[in-house]
Amino acid sequence: MVVRKLLCTNSRFVKVILMSATINCKEFADYFAVPVLNKMTPAYIFEVEGKPHDIEVFYLDDLKDIPQAKIAAHYSDEPLISKEMYEVATSLIHLFDEMEKEELKKGKMSHKAYIESNSVLVFLPGLMEINYMHELFTNMVQKRLHVYPLHSSITLDEQNLVFMPPVIGYRKVILSTNIAESSITVPDVKYVIDFCLTKTLVCDEETNYQSLRLSWASKTNCDQRKGRAGRVSKGYCYRFVQKDFWKNIIPENVIPEMLRSPLGSTILKVKLLDMGEPRALLATALSPPNITDIERTILLLKELGALAVSGKRENENPYDGELTFLGKVLAQLPVDLQLGKLIVLGHVFGCLEECIIIAAALSLKNFFAMPFRHLLDGYRSKLSFSGSSRSDCIALVDAFKSWQSCKERGELRLSKDELEWGKRNYFQIKRIREVAALYDDLKKRISHFNMHVTQPARDPDYNFKQRFILQIVMAGAFYPNYFTFGQSDERSAVRDLSAKDPRTTVVLKNVPNYSFLYYKQIQSLFRQCGQVKSILFDGSRAFVEFSRNPTERFKTLTAVYLALKMAQLKIPLILNVHPTEDIEKADDTITSLKLSRINVDCQTQTFESVHVAKTMEKHLETLDGLTLSVNITEVVEVGHFWGFSIDTKSMAILEELATNIRQQQLVPLTERPHSNMMCLAPFTNKDSESYYRAQILYISGSTAMVFFVDYGNKSQVELTLLRMIHETILNIPFQALEFKICKMRPSAKSLICGEQWCRSASERFDALVNGCALMVKVHSIVHDILHVDVYRHFENLEEKSIRDLLIADGYAEPAEESYESNQSNEVLKELFLPECNKKPYKQGFAKEDEKNQIEKMLDKFTQNKLGIQQCKAVLHGPFSPYEVKFHSLMRVSKFRSVWIEKESINSVVLNEAPEAPHQRIFVAASVSVNASGSVIMLRETSLLPPIPGLPALISMLFAPVIELRVDGARKHYTGVLFGLGWHHESGTSIWPEHDIELAFDVHFSVDDLVKINLLRSTINKVLRQNYNGSLNSSYERPGFFQEDIREKLLNLIQKDKPREVITPKWYEKLYQWNQVDPKWLIDQSDRTDEERKADVYQLHTFVMLNP
Questions:
Q1: pLDDT in tens, 375-391
Q2: How far apart are CA 46 and CA 19, in angstroms?
């Protein structure tokens, strides 16, 4: 377009040569026609012929030997692949053997060509179709085929397999998308099977999200695919459409990209050229875009901040806008527009290095390896790099920096070592090198805008603050791709999980009768996830609980995420079982156990028939009341600790235990030590060493980390010092108690400066609880943890609550207890009423004869001593009722289903605090829709910390325009509407589809809004400075503003006193703009300053509140 304009103006004697194997030559020749003797003369066309071996083409009509081809032909009108079509393809591939034998007999093929590889290339539209057909071949018997998927998402190592020759006697089958049309050439392909389908990237008219839609490939594309055969010998191409359909329906050429893809980058480049209004220049393109697409793109660029949002909207041109500094940068960066904005905001907020890494990584193929048949291992690796951030982008940053650090230390000097390191960590080294190259290129490009990667001064909490600020920057760059949790029913979730701990437990369904017989099989199914602690069998359900380290902080186990991921990846869970009739025929007394709830302890290999819930019973045996005096022995984190009761009864039990152990002859371990093994371990106290009951947490070399089950502390012990434990000692209940302070959660300050609790909060808590006896009041018992109020007596004999002290110091804030905790609290109150002599809480285990019956059955059936024939049972799951569904905040997609790509670490998310009333914000770097527009697909996602009010704060900080909602008395702000504002003439929304309405769940003051405007103003100031600066500008000035912005941001979010939690009240006229009387509005912007009209963020207008 620009070349053509310049050729017609100031560059008439410049020669332009266009080369392609597939373009429509006449169309381009006419477009570049030049006036000669009063008429337009097309450009010259030179054709260079190049012909491979002959390729014979067949259609569905020609496949008379395959019965399914006649049926499949009836389904060929719609762009889809029916089951019959897949069967035609597989049958045809098997026929190739017969065809080649026939050619050999007739002398049309040499014996050498017959025994050599004659590969098949199957063109399919997408990964889902590849997976389906791959499964068909996998289930075939005596297939003698090597089947390889070829898709852009699979690893480079897997892609390289398609070039390997197959074993003699086997045929190679490549299942590929259009990546094999031109990007990859496999020389030994003789047969091409083409379904004549493709997935085309289009822009959804409603949401402006991109979507891959299934459509018929053009004849140009199909001819390109045909050329993949016949490279070394005669080839055959089978098109799975009828001849008439090919002639009359299949399009000649693809729809031009300008008519189906976003125009954002194109319009910014046009604006940068300063050659007139974008609409006028684009009208001269070979395939001019639709005028409505241009208008929608202008709105998108204003929402992004690349074009300025005018204060006087009645004068705005819907087809043009003023280019901001952000727009100038974005036009010159070779990345997506939102990724370019991420880089600019990274510069502003002092996390430029991390943002460049993210932009480079997201611009190229993902360097995390997700092998086609080892997706769970790839997911595990990515999960480990994300740490506790729940962010795909932060996982990319940490992974890239890890590779970079290893390179700098010289650990990956040899290519072999680097490849091995990448294989071990599920990295694709070639792709991470490409990211590194783009990272360096982007650094050079942005240096022209006075943006440089610097090393700031680091305080002790720097890494945590940096991670949080990076998450805020990502939210700003990817606005308005915001999502939140769907409604959760905590009571139903507790019931569905049978009151088990959601952090450690998953559910299996469709479990066969007498399923406890197969507990070892179930245990082995989850071996790749983690160590199974116990399995509770309840009817057709089984609750699989994983082991957790008792000295680690509260969090959902990685094993739970991996188990739930197995269900998402549709990894089959199959048991070899005995038919119910045969089991009952073999032992007629067994039917009494058919509906029993049986708990299997996988660590001790013991079985219990559980008739009542036993959530609290082991503690109720030792508790004489709800008030205890305790010694704390191990602090796990703030508010979470281990200790033991120091009342007379407990101390007598501990003394008796110590005496019994001293009197025994201690014997070294007779079996190999392992995790969760019970033993006796030494501990030195006041120069005196004694042995105590202990559990091995993990083994490292010649030492073991052990947990003392009667005191709650841990210690590193030499393996040679561990001793066997006698069963009589083991049967005494453990005396250590696990505590958690109730009705408290981390404050914003703690969440920002730490994993959950900041360093100073941990130091303060340690100082409060260590070295003294504490009094605790038990509120509830949940999953064997005592939720308590903790009190300490100070020197002035004043008793103070530890929770109140932490809240007063700003480290914690009040919180609601969970439904389970409140239910437990009610039970405990009843059990410990003064009029009750003793707790009527009985054990729910079966009698000894029931246990014997279970063990007898296990002995018979697990070894199959009766010779009963086995069959297969397919389990459903695993599931968790706490798994989260997301909803979009944006109006146009609010009621659409939301899916997260399977490679994302957030493809499995659990709601760890369903009792919390505040919203969580979830940000996606990339959003697309399915072909029908009913499902939104999210990629590269980040779940931000659970800070009350954070969704509203982030949205107000980065939204182009807001309108505040107030209550009837105009005393409080109740919510806010975000978007591009409204037309002053009609009063309607400028872009209603992208509006977001939020009801506040915490109280916001005028002071908060002033701080937001101050932040927006400082961001503009930094960007204006960069715009007016040059390469010779000092780095110190931007650094000063960056520190100022970071401090302002943290002060806005982490207030000294937590924001008051309020019940959300939705505005009655949702998504309606201009609802406030103008006389109550306070406009802080300076409309007379011409320079500020091109700012990225205009200052928000306030609503004056009544005192």
A1: 899 999 999 999 889 99
A2: 10
